Amino acid sequence: MDDSVLSSEFASSPGLVKRLRENGMVKTYREGNVILDENSSIRSIPIVMKGMMKVIRTEEDGREILLYYIRAGESCIMSFLGGMHNEKSIVKAEVEEDTEILFLPVDKVSLFIKEYPEWLDYIFRLYHKRFEELLDIVNAIAFKKVDERLLNLLMKKSEILETKTLIITHEQLANELGTARVVVSRLLKQLEDSGKLRLGRNKITLL
User: Fewer CB atoms < 10 Å away: N or C end of the chain?
Assistant: First the structure.
């Protein structure tokens, strides 16, 4: 396992890096794989070593909405909270691009909190970042039009993936925005007509 991400994230605590390496299990997933589903038991905490995941919330009517992305060096705060309190997952975690994940058993989470201040600080930093991202989601839903949210989502994906060309379907975008595919298709055509992007088959290029 390449633990350079852990060494960078916990540079002040090589002992913690060693314990994470010893107690964690590394698995590799392909794009589209679901590593945690809603109502599933949380037995381990995922730390992304390479690649990226997205965390999604599904409503009773089947509609989905993107909550946030988890990049290399980050974890899912929902998994931390659910695992520590022995609760079922209330979100779905899906691989956005080929990803390598270290899974830490939940019983080690509380143990490391007592032994390593850097681990507790890591959890608090994650919580703060996710809270701000969720506030952005609430703000966007309450005050922004769907076309603004769509363009912002495309720009965010472009920034994260470091490419202007996104391989994605209208259906996927609709799911992440919590709206209908026909709405996304119509808005994408309007954005193309205004010169902000170019549409292809399952492909969008930002201009």
Answer: C
Buried b (16+ CB within 10 A) or exposed e, 74-104: bbbbbbbebbbeeeebebbbbbbbebbbbbb
Q: Calculate ∠ Cα 89-154-74, nearest 5°.
A: 40
Q: How far apart are CA 195 and CA 132, in angstroms?
A: 31
Q: Please tell me the pTM assigned to this model.
A: 0.77
Beta carbons within 10 angstroms of residue 3's beta carbon: 17
What is the rounded CA–CA span in Å between residue 80 and residue 4? 22
Amino acid at 157: K
CA dist 102 and 22 (Å) reads 11
For 144, the 3-state DSSP assignment is coil
pLDDT in tens, 155-189: 988 888 888 999 999 988 888 887 888 999 999 99
State the Cα–Cα distance between residues 197 and 135, nearest whole angstrom.
27
